[in-house]
Amino acid sequence: MISISLCLIVKNEEETLGRCLSSVKDIVDEIIIVDTGSTDSTIQVASEFTDRIEHFTWVNDFAAARNYAFSLATKSHVMWLDADDILKEPDRRKLKALKKKLNPAVDSVSMEYHLAFDEFGNVTSKLRRNRIVKRERAFQWIGPVHEYLEVYGDIFHSDVAVTHSSIHHDSDRNLNIYEQRLAKGEVFSPRDLFYYANELKDHGRYEAAVRYYDKFLATGKGWIEDNVAACSRLADCYGELQEARNTLDSIFRSFHYDKPRPEFCCRLGYHFLQQNEPKLAVYWYKLALSAEKPEQNWGFENLACSTWLPHLQLCVCFDRIGEYEKAHEHNEKAAQFRPTDERILANRSYLNQRLGKKKNEKALQ
Asked: How far apart are CA 147 and CA 243, in angstroms?
């Protein structure tokens, strides 16, 4: 059985750290906390779980802090989490089982990262991250901001999921780091261009975000998932700027990098529905449901676009066309994911009336 060192870098995480560590303390063999300058009771919380608490002088470089934390590990494998991550009970059981049976030859274990949920508990946004690595491989973290763990070799894709459960977020921190680097004259890598554009978008600086997304895509060196995401976020930016043609062009631009994905199909379905072209909208919403998805999706995935949302929109489309049986069919399929959604319940009542009226009309003929 492998042994696991859990490594976290923290700063002012008193509200979330205990919850995180409680969810894994009986599974890992060592907990290492690297504090980067807390001024609250984070250290006291950490001391309830481990005596391996170290300090790291913050230099605006997340990779440097994580690499330092990894360097302190002593067990056969190293796992990382953020303080606002948890493992839910089903995933705790899966991790315990994985720890017992993992082939020691595996270099890295990837896990799903569940980022958002709807009011019914369905995962609405997720991606996959490398979470556990063999210590002897000495894999390194890369990038001052939005850092990633560079791994290679034998990677095992597990069914364990880590759940992100944030309470607060320093919304200006990453943007400030990027702008300090720009002020020093640093030349950004393609990855930096993409993530800086994301920060600009998140701060409502849409015109600047558009420039940097274009700069990123123009390099021709982006990871496919970032290329596709850039097209999606360009569409969002142009939507905020009320530039309809550029919004549509950004959606189609994604097809340069990959086959039509559910998110973009839904975007096109919505566009044509707004243009009062329900039959064209039907084409794209149906494609959203049938579009092939990668077996292991390392990029952000909006699960609504391949599950309930196309069905709900198809209900609207078929109602407009007057095909009420098909509208009812898709509404009920949407209900399988969101059984108490008020929109679906209202559709059901309306369509039952429509279908009842239609049956009565046929009987009178």
From this structure: 33
pLDDT tens for residues 103-142?
Answer: 999 999 999 999 999 988 889 999 999 999 999 999 999 9
CB atoms within 10 A of CB 365: 4
What residues have CB less than 8 Å from 21, skipping those under 6 apart?
Answer: 31, 46, 49, 50
- 291 with 262: CB under 8 angstroms? yes
| Domains of the chain and CATH, by start | 4-164 (3.90.550.10), 173-312 (1.25.40.10)
Q: Which residues contact 40 (CB under 8 A, 6 or more apart)?
A: 12, 14
Q: Tell me the CA distances in angstroms from 214 to 44, 109, 222, one per residue in order.
A: 46, 34, 11
Q: How far apart are CA 162 and CA 88, in angstroms?
A: 8
Distance of alpha carbon 318 from alpha carbon 278, whole angstroms: 8
Kindly give the interhelix angle for 190-202 and 173-183, rounded to the nearest 10 degrees.
Answer: 130
CA pair distance 130, 98, nearest whole angstrom: 15
CA–CA dist 118, 246 (Å, integer) = 30
Place of tokens 């894994």: 24
| H-state helical runs in the chain | 17-22, 42-47, 62-71, 89-101, 173-183, 190-202, 206-219, 224-240, 244-253, 262-274, 278-290, 308-321, 324-335, 342-364
Query: Do 191 and 143 touch, CB atoms closer than 8 A?
Result: yes
Q: Which two tokens stand for residue 315?
A: 């209900």
pLDDT in tens, 243-290: 999 999 999 999 999 999 999 999 999 999 999 999 999 999 999 999
Burial of 216 per CB tally in 10 Å (0-12, 13-18, 19+): buried
Per-residue tokens: 159: 């069914």
Structure tokens belonging to residue 28: 């890992």
- Angle, vertex CA 193, rays to CA 189 and CA 199, nearest 5: 140
Nearest to 80 by CA among 70, 89, 71: 70
Q: What is the pTM of this model?
A: 0.89
